[in-house]
Amino acid sequence: MTKLTLGPIAYHWSAEARSDFYARIADEAPVDDVYLGEVICSKRAPFHEAELPATIDRLERAGKRVILSTLAEVMLKRERKATDDLAGIDAPEIEINNAAGLFARGRRPHRIGPFMNAYNEATIGWMAARGATHVCLPSEMPAPAIAVAARAANDLGLGVEVQVFGRVSLAVSARCYHARAHGRTKDNCQFVCEEDPDGMPLRSRDDQPILRVNGIQTQSESYLDLLPETPQLVADRVTHLRLMPQRVDMVAVAQVFRDAVDGRLSMSEADARLAALSGDARLSNGFYHGAAGYRRIAMAAPV
Amino acid sequence: MSLAELICPAGTPAALRTAVDAGADAVYCGFQDATNARNFPGLNLTPDELAASVVYAHAHGTKVLLALNTYPPAGKLDLWRHAADTGARLGVDAFIVADMGVADYIAHAHPQVRLHLSVQAAASSPEAIRYYCESFGVKRVVLPRILTIPEIRQIRKEIPCEIETFIFGNHGLMVEGRCSLTNYLTGQSTNMDGVCSPASDVEYVRDADGSMSSQLAGFTIDRFGPDEKAGYPTICKGRYTAPHRPEGYYAFEEPVSLNLSRLLPELIDAGVHAFKIEGRQRSKSYVRGVVRAFRAAVDDIKAGRKANIADLLALTEGQKQTQGAFETKKWR
Amino acid sequence: MSIHADVNTRPPGPGRTAAARLACVLIQPFLSRVVHRTAARHPSLFARLGPHQTTDFLIDPVELPFALHLRPDPEALVFRAVPRDAAPHTGAAIRGRFLLLLELVDAEQDGDAAFFSRDLEVSGDTEAVVRLRNALDDIDGSLAEETAAMFGAPGRAMLARLRRAYLNDTKGQECI
C113: nearest CA in chain B? Predict the structure, then answer.
C-alpha cells in the first residue's frame, strides 16, 4: 500500500507551535512516516532539540514511523557535529541530506533525502550498495525520469519517495536571505525568520508573486500539488508520497491524499478540497510534466 | 608552496587557444549538450573540435579538463557515459564531475583519467570531500564559493586531495547543484539540462524613458534605469519586493563579480592548488584579459614579487566586484 | 556626451533619410563582398548559429546614417545597409556605436561587459544574439583586418583612422 509521509518542517516554527502541530499529527493525520529535525538552518536547531525526544515518543506511540533528517548544508563546525551525531544513531531511522552524512554513516542503513540529488539509476544503485534503504527523488524530476528511477530503486528493494504537496525547495545558500532582507547578517539574524511561518514572499518587478524566502532556503511561491498524478506515481512504483508542512490544515490535507489514493474520493472532488485547504496559495505541477515548475498543467485525460 | 595552477574557461576552440596562448596551465570545456553546466546556445565543443583542441593544448603544455558536471536524469545516462568515453579516447587530462553515478562509471571505465569534483557537487566540508575521495578516487575538489580563507585552510588539513577555488567571474550565490530556480520559471533545469536563465527565455525590453527591463519567461527580474549598470538576467541577481522591502531590493545578491586578485597570496598560503577563472560563456576578449592578468600575478607571487594585478573591473558584472565569502563571514 | 543618449535617440528627418538611402546604395557592394568572403573563409560559424541561420538580425551602429540587415543563411546570405525608417522587421536587434560593434566582432571587446555597461543594447530573440556572438567569437584573427585588407593599403589606413577616432572619443567619455 502506498504510504503517506510528512516531511520535516522547513520553517522556524516555535517549539510550542511544533509540539502542538505534531500532537495533532499523531492523533489525527493518516500519515505513516514522519520526518523530524532541522534541515535548513543549524542556528535554529537548539530551539526545538529539547522537545525532540517527547515528539518522537508521541508520534511512535500513535503508530507513526519516525525518521530524523540531517542538515542540507554542512560547512560549519556545529553543522559537522550535528551531522556526525545524527549519523551515529541506531534508532529511529535517519534521512541523510548531505554527503558529509553519507561519510559519517558509512554502510549502516539510511534513507537518502531530497537534497542528495539522486537523479538516476546509477546514482541510486551506488547509494543502495552503500546502505541506502529508501530514496526521496529531487522535486524537479519529470515523470519519465521518476518512472525509470523508481523501477530501478524498487528492483534494489528500496522505498521510493516523491514530494506531492507543499512549497518546493528551489535553492539553498550559505547566505541568509531573511537576515539580508532586514539588513542583518546570518550571525546576528535574531531569528527574524520566525516572523514568516510560511516563508517570506518575494514579488517580481511587475508585481507577480514568484518566490518564498526561508532563511538560507529559497522556495517556490506555489504549493506543489501532484494529487491528480498520484495514480500514475503509484503505477510507476513510487511507494511513499511526501507532504511538506505548510501553514494550512495538514491533517485535512493528509486525509484528502489518503482518501484519494485509496479511491474513497474522486480525484476531482479531492483536488477541489485540496485547493480550498490551500487558501490563497497557487497550486502547481509543472516539474512533473517537464514544464516550468510554477505552472499548473491539466491532465490530458481524467483519471 | 602549492602549484598555483591557473584553470581557464574555454567556451569555443578559439577561446581555448586564446587561453592557452595567454598562459593557462589548464583549460576546462564541455560538449554541446546537457552533459555540462554551461549548455548555452552556440557554445562549447564538438568531439572533433575537442580532439584538435587537446592536440593544441598538449603541444603547449596545457592540460584539458572536460566538464561532465550535470546530473543525468534517470533513463538518459548514456549521453553522459558516451561523453566520458569520448573524452577519454581523445586524451583529456581530467573529468570534472558532480553526479555519483557518473563518477562511479568513470572510476571503473576510465580509471586512468583523473577525477575532479565539480563545484556542482557542493562538497563544503572535509567529510563530504573525503566521501568523494574514498568512493571514487577524486584527486581534486572545486570548493563552493561560500568559504572563508581560514575555513579553506582548515579543510586542506583534513582532506587527501587537491583544492581548486574560483578567483574571478560570476559570483554564484546559491549552493551549486542544488538550484532549481531556472527550472521553476522556464521548464529547463540547471542540474539536468545544464542551463541557467536560458537565452531562449530571456527578453530585454526598452522602456520609453531609456530604462531596460530584463525578463525571464515573462517575469520581470530587474529593471535598470537609463544610466544604471546591468547584470545577467539570472533569478538570484534580480530585484524583488518583500513585505519589509516595498521599494524593491536585491533579495539575494547585486549584479557583481568575484575578484580575488588581492587574496592570491593568502590563498596560496592556505594550500589552494589551483585557481579557477569562471566564464566559458564569455568572449575571447574576456579570456585573454583575465588570463593574462592572473598569469602575471601568479608568476609574480611565485617569484616572490608583489603582484600587480591589472584592473579587471570593466569585465565584471554590473561593473562591481566583491571578495564575497572569502574575505569575511559577514557576507553570509 | 553620453552613449545612452546616442543609443536611444535617432531623430529622423527628410534630408537625413535621402542621405541615408544614398549611403546604403554606395556601401552595398562592399557589404556583399565582406559577407561572402567571411562565409567562405569561416564555414564553421554556421554550425554555431544552428536554427538561427535564417533569423534576420538588425545591426544598428547608432552614429551611422543607416543600419545593417544580416541574414546569415548559407544558402542565401543577406548583408545589406538599410535606412532606419525602412528597416525590415527583424528577429533580433543589436545596437551600439559602430567601432564597439566592430570590436565585438573581432573579440577586441567583451560583449557581456559592453552589455553590463549599457553601451550595447539587445532586443528581440536573445538566443539568436547569443548564437551569433558565439559564432563570431570562434573565428580566429580579425574580421575587420581581413575586410580592410580586401581594399589594400587604403582600406587598412581607413580602419586605423576609425580606431583612432573611436579611442579618442571613448577616452573623452571616461573623463566626464
Answer: B315
